[in-house]
Amino acid sequence: MLIDLHRHLEGTLRVATTVELAQRYRHRLADPEFAREQMVARGPEGGLVPFLAKVDVAVSAFQRVEDWQRAAVECVEDAAADGLDYLEIRFCPAFIALETGLDPEAVMDAVADGARAASARTGLKIALIGIVLRDLGPERGQEQMARLLGRRDLLCAVDIAGNEAGVPAAEFAAPFRAAREAGLHITVHAGEAAGAFSVWDAVNHLGAERIGHGIRSVEDPALLELLAARDITLEVSLTSNVHSSSAPSYAEHPVRQLLRAGVPVALCTDDPRASGITLSGEYAAAAPQAGLTAADLQSIRTQARRAAFGSDLSG
Ligand SMILES: [Zn+2]
């Protein structure tokens, strides 16, 4: 089974669709060559923030609610074409609203409609994760979570993402408690740009069951023991980590160290368009460069299935 547990809708927006919409709306990404250069990393971008710029730049070209329905359809179609069996799509309604002026609830409904329709057509099972944007601070975090919980039925989980150097996770404890009480699963972006402390915070203060990236957990043996003991899966995205300069290279990526410590790992894409990758390509090309063996990849596939938050994967 080919499963991606960590893929941002914003990082899947196709270059061609972005250019088409940009031409219609007289948006700055109307030139195809310029759009590609702005939207796709060619290698290490020198940090998480410049890499996120490549992810985020296209969002403002999707100016109508229908454009988000289309984005979700294309995200599912691209994943199905790559041979995926199950996909968890995450997106940040507050960020999309900031960039487009659209109503966040309308965006959530459109994304869910598009994703469901494409899922039914392609047979690819999907689930949605709503993201709180850390950069807006704890007060806006409450408000963002309230909006996500207002559409609780569309979501399998919530996440927090954005600049890890910003507001500490502990300040978002209350909204994440509310999400757990509403029966949603929790995954948290941590240990990517920030150190092992951010993974501790995600587990202790936000109740994270999985961690987005978490690769800097290798800096703390006690944390590795905790992740292994509590069966907390790290959603590891090899190429994204190289592009955001969170790992110096594939060969020096800490994924083998994590596996050796018994930490559960699932291989993910994060932002396939912004990184110019597919999940099958990550298994076939990036994983061997990171030193993963066929046996490692088999256990990673099994772990991805075990750690899925969403629909029934039996059968
Ligand atoms: Zn991510």
**N-to-C span:** 11 Å
Biggest sheet, in brief? 8 strands, parallel
CATH level 1 class label:
Alpha Beta
Enumerate the strands of the largest sheet in spatial order, edge to edge or round the barrel. Answer: 1-2-3-4-5-6-7-8
Name of the CATH architecture:
Alpha-Beta Barrel
Number of helices in the DSSP assignment: 15
General form: globular
- By DSSP, the count of extended strands is 8
Question: What brief labels describe this structure?
Answer:
315 residues, alpha/beta, binds zinc ion, TIM Barrel, globular
Explain what you see.
It contains 15 helices and eight strands. It is an alpha/beta fold and 315 residues long. The chain has an eight-stranded parallel sheet with strand order 1-2-3-4-5-6-7-8. Strand 5, helix 9 and strand 6 form a beta-alpha-beta unit. The longest helix has 19 residues. It is globular. The termini are close together. The model has no long low-confidence stretch (mean pLDDT 96). The protein binds zinc ion (ZN). Zinc ion (ZN) binds next to strand 1.
Which SSEs are present, and which pair or pack?
Layout: E1 3-8, H1 15-25, H2 32-39, H3 48-56, H4 65-81, E2 86-91, H5 93-100, H6 104-122, E3 125-133, H7 137-150, E4 157-161, H8 173-181, E5 185-190, H9 196-206, E6 210-213, H10 221-229, E7 233-236, H11 238-243, H12 255-260, E8 265-267, H13 272-275, H14 279-289, H15 294-307
Parallel strand pairs: 1-2, 2-3, 3-4, 4-5, 5-6, 6-7, 7-8
Helix pairs in contact: 1-2, 4-6, 5-6, 7-8
